[in-house]
Amino acid sequence: MMLAIRGRACNLALSPAIARTLGVIPITTAVTAQVTVPLQVAKGVIPSSVTIQCKLTYGSGGTTADAWIQTSIDGGASWTDIANCHFTTATARFVYNLSSMTPVTTQYTPTDGTLSANTSKDGVLGPNYRLKYTTTGTYATSTVLQVDINGVPFSN
Hints:
By secondary structure, the chain is an all-beta fold. It has no helices and eleven strands. The strands form three sheets. Strands 4, 5, 7, 8 and 10 form a five-stranded antiparallel sheet that branches.
């Protein structure tokens, strides 16, 4: 796509943003701090925003399920929570839209699996994303947690 900025022609290459699944996890027994395989943003792409959808399809039983969507800015050596979706004993869906364009002007102490229930942390988006989840109680095998992310092209 050709774009004119202040009278100068500039090429603007747009990469299609494709929704990717961070995890589709059947929930049966209690688990603590399980993680999915990370997704990496395509080389050379700096994410400006991501949209996250968390969905719990409830079967029966169980107590709670927490899903933390995390980003890493150091190649996966450390992970930072950017959103939490907290579920109990009902089918539910949550959506977040996060932007790296949001100024973070005060120090943010990164959390890893401890961001408060149903909250997000805007302004911190790295090139790597994963899902960390913890459940309590025994859910029926028809209970499924799914988390999708959209906004940037991923390389894997």
